[in-house]
Amino acid sequence: MTQDQLINSTVTYVKQELAQAEGGHDWWHIHRVWHTAKEIAAREPVNPLIVSLGALLHDIADAKFHGGDETIGPAKARQFLESQGVGEDIITHVIAIIENISFKGGHNEGKFSSPELAVVQDADRLDAIGAIGIARAFNYGGFKNRALYDPAIPPDLQMSREQYKNSTAPTINHFYEKLLLLKDKMNTTTGKELAAERHAFMETFLEQFYKEWH
């Protein structure tokens, strides 16, 4: 199997698996992250195959849609890659990306690092901010039946990893607990450049939101 055939098979698999996914974590999220990752990777000394596979499979079974179980995604990715005859060295690297990409309330232990993880992580974080990031945040908030905003519930910037995973706070709080923090957590020069504009847009949105609210 050629690399192009493997990528095409992976695309088909991911589309099937995420056919009924929540709108902020569906195939189009994967598609955006994949293409952004390829854009960043073009300027970085990375293995493009690992970047593509990591981007395509990074949310194959997001833990928040599986009762918080963080083992399902890596297991499904491994099973798929093994079925395609992918070498163990590549599988291990892709699984490590899946296991270490998430923000987790700022409590990412950093047990693994690689240039490929840095690229895919930046691409995933870029999709969490800016106009699309705002849309995704409110889409997920609606999916979970959360309030848009409640002045009586301030953002909690001291949450533990478990508290972050189980939070039911209003969607606006998520901007302060995650989205506005991502600009300064970008790994690559390209990621930082792309994040700056999206971050500014979120600040403008929040300013307008509060203006209208009050």
From TrEMBL:
<dbReference type="Pfam" id="PF01966">
    <property type="entry name" value="HD"/>
</dbReference>
<feature type="domain" description="HD">
    <location>
        <begin position="26"/>
        <end position="129"/>
    </location>
</feature>
<dbReference type="InterPro" id="IPR006674">
    <property type="entry name" value="HD_domain"/>
</dbReference>
<protein>
    <submittedName>
        <fullName>HD domain-containing protein</fullName>
    </submittedName>
</protein>
<dbReference type="InterPro" id="IPR003607">
    <property type="entry name" value="HD/PDEase_dom"/>
</dbReference>
